[in-house]
Amino acid sequence: MPLRICFIASEVAPLAKTGGLADVAGALAKYLHLAGHDIRVFMPLYAQIDRSSLEVWPVEFLQDVSLRLGTQVYRFSVHTARLPGAATMIYLIDCPALYARASIYTNDPDEHVRFIALTHAALMCCQRMGFAPQVVHCNDWHTGLAPLLLGTVFSWDRLFLQAKSLLTIHNLGYQGQFSAAQVADTGLGLQDFDYAETSQGRINPLKEGILHADHLSTVSPTYAREIQTSQYGWGLEDVLRQRTADLSGILNGVDYEEWDPRHDRHLPVHFDARQLQGKAELKRLLMQRAGLEPVATRPLIGMVSRMTLQKGFDLLFDTLPAVLAARDVALTVLGNGDARYEGFFTELQHRFPGRVVFHRGYSEELSHWIEGGADLFLMPSLYEPCGLNQMYSLRYGTVPIVRHTGGLADSVSHFDPATGKGTGIVFNDFDAGGVRWALDTALDWYAQPTLWRRIVHNGMAQDFSWRRQVAEYETLYQRMTGQS
Ligand code: ADP
Ligand code: GLC
After folding, report:
1. pLDDT tens digits, residue range 313-323?
2. Ligand 2: does its nearest atom lie under 6 Å from the Cβ of 3?
3. For a pocket test of ligand 2, which of 24, 167, 386 has the largest count of ligand atoms closer than 8 A to its C-beta?
4. Which of 7, 12, 137, 170 to mutate to test the pocket of ligand 2 (most atoms within 8 A of CB)?
5. What's this model's pTM, rounded to 2 decimal places?
6. Do 387 and 470 lie in a common domain?
7. Residue 86 DSSP SS3
8. 14-58, pLDDT tens digit by residue?
9. 145 CA to centre of ligand 2 in angstroms
10. How far is CA 365 from CA 18, 266, 371, in A?
11. 359: which of 35, 341, 344, 426 is 20 to 30 A away, CA to CA?
């Protein structure tokens, strides 16, 4: 049965993206819409969103709406658009006071207000549209207060009588804490919040979501288990364990309309598992474009990543220089973030000119080139709720080297030369020895063309499509709303 779903997210591709949350929000909304559900997506109208590529029109009865949070009054208007290529309805919350900033996320003192306002605004829009959601699906700390708001500020409204809330945790490492002295910014009182936090002078939006949502999910089965342990729980393992019966792990999918080497709109050449010459040609073009020495037989490792502790770069400080000194291998890295990681790759590029290139910054186009043109893709993550690039890599015949954690463990299996089964190179321990072993193993296998072809083919045959994964969300929604 079609469901009415209110979906709230801080980033949605292709409109605004800093990482995987955007890819997931955009694709999940698209495939739920295609499955016949009435899904309405709410997100901020950031100054960064390119309106010229969108048909945006104002919602007449949602202009100049006042939202009072404490002593502040924010005025917002709402514009609708169809998600490009998907026709899903998006509601853009236009509030320049909050969203006209230099970047999507900021370190500004009102960062929490920016997303609390989004959450309030989304629920207010439902009211004014007379849209009675059966599911309110919120994502990460930014919209983690939605379940609490439904049970307090909005509880008088019969419109939400049937609404069940789902919080999807994409990353437990970001909880959005702010000072309890700023409680008025939430539109709630101190007594509404978890005493364990307020007594310490804090409010923790992600924890509030975990405590109040009807159901919780995270983006892979392994991460769902990991976050209930002290190693991965970021201090929330106890509350997560208390809610273990309501916590599901659903692996993210891939939108193969966006990420497929047979028709990728960002690539100058296309290929598939039977026609791998195209991949070789793309590697040549990528090496040329990046200014790498044009050695076709030299294995090329790619990385595309936010540069944060999560992604495991600390393991590479000693390992990569040693591997580059000992073996004939090239490396192309795209990303930005923490200065120490950016500094490391800048230095590596100077030390190994022609073999290492670091593209500091963000480029959707180049990320597709690296996915397509590299031979190997490195993701040594400290933790990884799901990870998308390893799944993209599999489809592009770019063999992933990953650590056995979270969604990496659920989507890449270690190749076994004896059986010919497996799709990548998987190491267990988060230490330099582990990643060194993985890199050496990968390079040894790359030197054996028949074996390598087998790994590449195994990976390209994998199917992580959203068309399939979306059914898991439908089953969960149905369970939550008592339809199954
Ligand atoms: P996370 O959400 O933790 O960053 P994911 O693997 O889930 O990790 O998703 C990352 C997404 O962001 C992928 O689509 C990846 O290609 C993209 N991405 C990350 N860094 C960059 C960058 N510097 N330029 C372009 N795309 C990037
Ligand atoms: C987060 C995680 C990443 C996941 C993405 C989308 O940013 O770090 O592992 O794939 O969200 O769910």
Report:
1. 999 999 999 99
2. no
3. 386
4. 170
5. 0.97
6. no
7. coil
8. 999 999 999 999 999 999 999 999 999 999 999 999 888 788 999
9. 20
10. 14, 6, 10
11. 426
